[in-house]
Structure formats: C-alpha cells, structure tokens
Amino acid sequence: MKKKSTINFISGLFIISALLLFCGICKLNVYADEDNNDSTAEIASSGPYRIIDLPIGKTIDGALIHSQNNRRYYDGILYKFTLTKSGKMNFSTYTEFAGIDYNILDEDGEKIYHGCSGTMYYNDKLGMGRDDFYFHISKGTYYLEITSRWEYTDDCPEISFEISTKFTDAKANEGEPNDDFKDATILGREGKIRGQFSISDVKDVYKINVNKKLIFTLKYTSENDVIYDIEVFDKNGDSTYKDTYVDEKTSVHKIALYPGAL
What we know:
By secondary structure, this protein is mostly beta strands. The protein contains 1 helix and 18 strands. Helices cover 3% and strands 51% of the residues. The model is unreliable at 1-11, 19-28 and 30-47 (pLDDT under 50).
C-alpha cells in the first residue's frame, strides 16, 4: 500500500545516460513508498559547400555539381534545418548514383559523432537505391551534409538524388537542459516524465526531495532498445546506487532513499 508523505529537502540525484547515441524517446514512471547567422557564413567560406534550406515534411531534388574550389571533385551541400521541438527526424532517399554520403552537423558545422554519418543505399544490379534512416534530435539548428567520394568526370556533370523528410515530436515534458546537478529536473513523489536521448544529449539528471526513508521505484520504458546507465547520488554528490549497461526496453529499479546525507 502506498503512503504519501510531505517532501521537504534534497535527498537524491538521479543520472540516466545512454551509452549509444542512436537513442529514442523514453518514459520514466516514478513513485515512492515508505521504507542564418555568423556560423552559417563561416561554414560557407570554409569549404566547397552550397547552403540550402531543407523543408521538413516535403520531398526535394538535389544534385552535386562540379566544385568551384577543387575542380577535381564534386561540391558538397549543407541542407539547413531548424527544429523548435525535440523529436525524431526521418530521412528517405532515392538516387541512381553510388557513393553519396550524408552526415548530421551541429549549428557550427561541426560533426556530432560518427553514428550520424552514412552512405545512401545503392544497388548495382538495379542501378538505383532507396534508403531510410533517422535520428533523434534535440531542438536547435542543424545541417544535413551531402557529399560524394567520386572524382568529377565530364561524362557525369552532376550526381542527383531525392530526399524526403518527416518529423515526429517527442512530446517531452522534462526541463532542458538538465545535464548536471545544477539544472536537474525536479521529480515529484509520483508521476511520469517523458524525455528523449538525442544525438547531442545523452544524459539527463533528476532530483527528488524526501524527509524520511523511502523505497523509490523507477520504471524505465523506451520504444528503442537503448543501452543506458542509471546512477543515484546523495546531496553530497556521493554515489549510492548504480546499474550500468542496461539493455532492456522496460526495466524497474527500486532504490532506497534516506533523508539528509545517505
């Protein structure tokens, strides 16, 4: 039987972090029982890229053409897009050319991590390829980088492709940023938090206040099979509970919390 009690002061800090950046939307059910800016200009001047706005929810035609900076190769394209909410970004591609690479860059044109890159699928026998890939992305401005590894030839003046995009809102209700103790999201005695691990945000910190010993139950669920860690700290920053390399879509943690220093 659950018993409610008044919450008065800090007892624990919870850190949940993903070990893989290909992550997803996660839910935490909890309850306690007693016991176009300067960066754009910099990108444009730093290499053979054209910058084009990427409409979300539409299909666009694109092509890599002869580079003006390096006549030996094709140029590159940076498709710029801005998300006002965190969520899942799906990309679908079609091409009749092999060797088209893609990557997701941050608003400064920097690579986020190696898992954000890949090569559009191409089938030699069919002479074409269709591909689908997605990333969980925090709100902000990003670039989809499209390049080719091939050297330019007059017989192939351009390398063409199609890209379709779709965005799905994560409907997160946690406060961001919450990546350290100072900005930790406050947990109530009972409730549900809907958060998201993304390509640029793989750690969330939560805080709960108690005034007596409690058994804190945390149920973690995710639509993706994501390896993650969970660790609990007392108010002095000392670790009191840790479970690492959890590889389950649904898991339950029962954690003893104490008032004051644990």
